[in-house]
Amino acid sequence: MTSLPTIAGIMAPILEESPITHRLEVTFDEVTVIISSNSKALIDKLANYYRDFIGGGGSITIPVTAIEAGPPDFDLPYAIKQREPGKTKLKEAFIDVPDGRVVRKLLTGLAFLFGRGDNYAVGPCIENDNQVVNFINNRFIEHCLKAGALLFHAAGVAAHGSGLVISGFSGAGKSTLALEIMRHDTTFISNDRIMVSKNGNGSLTMTGVAKMPRVNPGTVLNNPNLAPVMDEADRKRFSALPEAELWDLEHKYDAFIDECYGPGRFKLACLMSGLVVLRWKRDTSPMTANRVDLRQRRDLMAAFMKDVGLFYEFEDPSEPSIASQNAYLDLLGDLPVLEIDGGVDFHKAAEACLAFLKEIQS
Hints:
eight-stranded mixed beta sheet, Phosphoenolpyruvate Carboxykinase, domain 3, alpha+beta, five-stranded mixed beta barrel, 2 domains, 10 helices, about 25% helix
């Protein structure tokens, strides 16, 4: 059997042919990611995307090199990653090599190589800069998890330094609710992933990811603050559709927080004061909001427990890809939890979340 190449061996000829002349530093909490590339256009796009986080100075640095090129053919015996529940497309293939992992995006041809402190993106990066953004953010997520945090599938907002983690089953509208709450002078913490860690005094810190919310037309049309993300032609076209169709459209917009809500409203970390679990459905029943005890309602935990995914480098191959329910319960302890059930009502849910946060702050 032919031995597999190393990441270093794969990348050596690519780096030789692609001079790395452009650089960007972005800082997430204590971590500075140093992004290097052969493409000024890519660095410019990433600088615009990460404009709230530009600059160095983090106590920890992570290098990421992004090579703009055609889709690479590494001729590797990839395995296809199976679809997640509720997903329809096969999106990724991967293979573990002696010094890390190679992941290939099936739809775009982009390849990501990472391991032992090296991180590379190779392929049509400019056209698929959102995938490069996700790769960069995953380096930060991995750092937080290896420092002891647990991963939550959730959005997050904060008021007066206290944060709410907003979780929900697939398609529940976590980001839509977070953006509705943002209309009440709160701070945005994260869109879809949150890392939660315990402090020495027993309090919890929630750390977000520098990922702009991706919102569908229904969310935009129902939140006046999001008006900048949609042009007039799209507004006219989508306003003519029945409301039920709007929420299921695959069309997405990046909602930049500073454009929609003003500067200084996107922070990545704060104390975690409460957890919200969305369990509602699209019907005409009244929305309800009630405090619950997670130890008695383990059925809600699947809403926020999250597998670490393909872009995590395990130090121990036997390590589970998702922490146990008991690990999450031990972390959260007696943290207040609010279950939102009944019919979908984002305005009323935002009011309930703000009242919940005010109650647990007092």
